[in-house]
């Protein structure tokens, strides 16, 4: 059943869009910021030969670098100033969020309100700088060593000076992206960090679509495969849009309170529990853990003796954990289910929610406040998380199965679709909110004018 806010939003007059000057300014600012992000993705690191990088990157395809490259809009492939993207910040925010739910001192800091959240955000930025420096150093060292192993001189002057310059440039590029994301959030429309990630993914759509239809034109890809792929993407987008907005609403009732007329009135509200509480974190974690051994073995693969036990183990690992293999898809699905339950338990605390309801005088009809309410919330959350985990597994494993059956190198996986659809829905909701506020503002002005005429 749609809420009253949804009904109002569906009846918005889009003709007011031309009159909403502030909204248009926010949208233009967001577009300009994303254009700056795309320009930076083509600025290479100092001391790097861009002509060699494409050949070098082709030899490392299939690992975790593909995932990071998709989120950075191809910046890692070109080894640009923003090659690391915002992934260090995302990793640091996840770690701080988990620690704030497990560590007692951080739990107390989280309960302090706005000041506590500000400190946690500061810790997240410090963690992002630290992770970016570590990743930047190993990326520079790996670029030197891997290029030397393959006989490609990607670095003009290898050494400590190049490594220091690369670390400083990569840290500066990531911090600039964080600042740009904050500016989009405050002065633009939507969540800035999410829009930057989505822009990096969407930027690769044209080249992928052109390669897909070029394969159909030359006959290397069957037309039925192309049609099946388009149908799969449409079905996945519709399914993601449905499940991401799906909620289990628990009725919350408050005791009767006296109104201005002296009548007793009982207040009611709803506690919304999302079907997919964990969001896009489970597939990111599961794919990262599975692709990490493959990436390490790729960087060390050319120097490993295949006749030795260690070398034979690495070759076998690469064989069974390759994209589309049954073992990879099985472990991928199990990892998604595990992290879905794990991250949901981290971000939602039934005991804390039950205590807050009890302090405010709220209760679930038929359930006693306190421990019974906490057990009931955990029971409901577990049941809907089963549905959410199954939905995430299907969305992420179906593209992998498509890759295995057709051989099409699809970068457009379930994780990318989840991010694009989620960010798009959130941005459209914010645009509707701005239009709704502008529509209410016009009604208030008309009411004031009528009052003055009287």
Assign a percent range to the helix content: over 70%
Characterize the overall form: globular
Total number of β-strand segments? 2
| Strand composition percent | 5-15%
Strand order, largest beta sheet: 1-2
Radius of gyration: 26 Å
Counting helices, strands and paired strands, the structural category is mainly alpha
Corresponding CATH architecture of the domain at 15-204? Orthogonal Bundle
CATH homologous superfamily classification of the domain at 15-204: SecY subunit domain
The N- and C-terminal alpha carbons lie at a distance of 41 Å
Q: In CATH, what is the class of the domain at 15-204? A: Mainly Alpha
Total of DSSP H or I helical runs spanning 4+ residues: 18
pLDDT below 50 for ≥5 consecutive residues: which ranges? 1-5
Order of helices and strands: HHHHHHHHHHHHEEHHHHHH
Say what the CATH topology of the domain at 15-204 is: Preprotein translocase SecY subunit
Mean pLDDT figure: 78
| Main pleated sheet | 2 strands, antiparallel
Task: Describe the secondary structure blueprint for this structure.
Elements (H helix, E strand, L loop, with lengths): L3 H7 L10 H20 L9 H9 L5 H8 L3 H4 L8 H16 L1 H7 L3 H36 L10 H28 L4 H11 L2 H14 L4 H23 L1 E12 L5 E11 L6 H21 L7 H12 L5 H22 L2 H10 L11 H36 L7 H40 L1
Antiparallel strand pairs: 1-2
Helix pairs in contact: 2-9, 2-10, 6-7, 6-8, 7-8, 8-9, 9-10, 10-18, 12-17, 12-18, 13-14, 13-15, 15-17, 16-17
